[in-house]
Model the fold of this input.
Amino acid sequence: MADYLGSCLCGNTKFEVQGDLDGFYLCHCQYCQKDTGSGYAANLFLNSAKLIWLAGSESVTTFTLPGTRHKKSFCKLCGSALPSIHEAGLLVIPAGCLDTEVSMSPTAHIFTSRRAGWEEAMSDVPEFERLPEPTKRA
Done:
């Protein structure tokens, strides 16, 4: 029985994970910023879990940054981040690729010394439930 189900954006790649979450980290390192095109990556860590590809495993490719432990798996059709197995069997799942709700709150922010400068102003940024209307320029 799957504890978590997930897929890529195009729906070609589907997977299930059996196991318990050990941590939920928001990583601000420069590698995760480049991977996501954002201020941080939201990753779930599972030390003793089983990853089962249900569909599209042939579309999964993995990139390891030479000289580092940084690894990223993704769908080669749509580019969506997907789970990857790291050193000592650690399973890392990008939280956004799960279709199952994650009940765990983030454990910690990590590599905060690399935090993007614009992130500090986030609490003052307006929020919208959908894409706002374009503003007219004078």
Notes: The chain has one domain: 4-117. DSSP finds one helix and eleven strands in the chain.
